[in-house]
Specification:
This protein has a domain of 168 residues: Immunoglobulin-like (Sandwich). Helix content is 24%, strand content 35%. The chain has an eight-stranded mixed beta sheet with strand order 5-4-8-2-1-11-14-13, with no helix packed on it. The protein has a four-stranded antiparallel beta sheet with strand order 9-10-15-12, with no helix packed on it. The protein is rod-shaped, with a radius of gyration of 47 Å.
Length: 297
């Protein structure tokens, strides 16, 4: 057992320098950071577009650190047909960060998106972005897409203002090469007049007018004859059952009345022992000769 522990320790000490060296050998050809405050959520959308240097041995793993309170949204890579999902592991929480391990298989541009909370006081907003600089990069640029109703903004360091193809105002700057370990921070403050999102959620609209010819649409009028037919059959069957039960109930009552009458007649079969005349119910003396009837005999 002790020999196995020694062997595993030696193996770990040999493998660790190689893993560190593989991590340090990765260099980025460039990374573009985009900050979109209150775009489609009331938070900061952070977008990383990065590409490894041509000298990087592939496949490789690039660890992207995002804040602990951030919410990962997407990991993708560019292709001839646009962005597609990329393979990744995590995020795994390590200290004050989450680590997203992106599997790099080619020299394409890879993208990581996440949302991070914005500190708000009334209509004033404040946000601090930090690039932890785990890798050296030949080019580092950053841009901020400002909300349309922004009345005042302060950036440190300062950024140049421009207009994007979508008509929105962008504050941006290219800071050139950054070595590994030299972190970058952007402190931003801005004021708005509303809380409206840059891309408000839209109601789903049909691609074509809805009518009776729309494929897949269920029309109540199409099933109305069947519903009325079923209702009619139900009423007819119910009526027949009611009539049958009513007739049986009448016959039963008739039989009961007949039985009761017969019992009464049976009770009235009393004759005078003197003259033989038939007595009526309730008679105690013969109506013909006046003799007292023998009722209990």
């Amino acid at each position: 057992m002790r020999k196995w522990l020694v062997f595993l320790f030696i193996l770990g000490t040999i493998a660790f320098p190689f893993s560190v060296r593989a991590q340090s050998d990765i260099k980025l050809a460039g990374i573009q950071v985009q900050l979109w405050p209150e775009y489609d959520q009331p938070s900061m959308l952070v977008i990383y577009d990065f590409q490894v240097a041509t000298s990087t041995a592939l496949p490789a793993s690039v660890n992207i650190r995002i804040p602990k309170d951030a919410k990962l949204s997407a990991v993708a890579q560019t292709t001839a047909n646009g962005l597609v999902n990329a393979e990744y592991d995590g995020p795994a929480v390590v200290g004050d960060w989450q680590i997203v391990n992106v599997n790099i298989t080619d020299l394409a541009v890879y993208r990581v998106e996440y949302y991070e909370p914005i500190f708000k006081t009334g209509m004033s907003r404040q946000f601090t972005y930090v690039w932890p600089a785990d890798y050296a990069t030949d080019d580092f640029s950053i841009s901020v897409r400002m909300p349309t109703d922004t009345t005042e903004s302060v950036m440190a360091p300062a950024l140049s203002e421009g207009q994007g193809k979508d008509g929105a105002t962008y504050l941006q700057n290219d800071f050139g090469a950054l070595p590994a370990g030299q972190s970058f921070s952007l402190n931003m403050k801005y004021t708005r007049t509303t809380d409206t999102l840059g891309v408000p959620q839209q109601k789903v609209q049909p691609s074509a007018p809805l009518n009776s010819e729309t494929e897949g649409r269920v029309m109540f009028s199409n099933y109305l004859p069947y519903i009325l037919g079923a209702l009619g059959v139900t009423l007819i069957v119910g009526g027949l059952i009611y009539f049958w039960r009513s007739s049986r109930s009448g016959q039963s009552k008739g039989r009961k009345r007949q039985t009761s009458q017969d019992e009464k007649e049976s009770d009235s079969d009393i004759y005078c022992h003197q003259c033989g005349a038939r007595a009526r119910i309730g008679d105690r003396f013969c109506r013909v000769c006046g003799t007292k009837l023998r009722l209990g005999e």
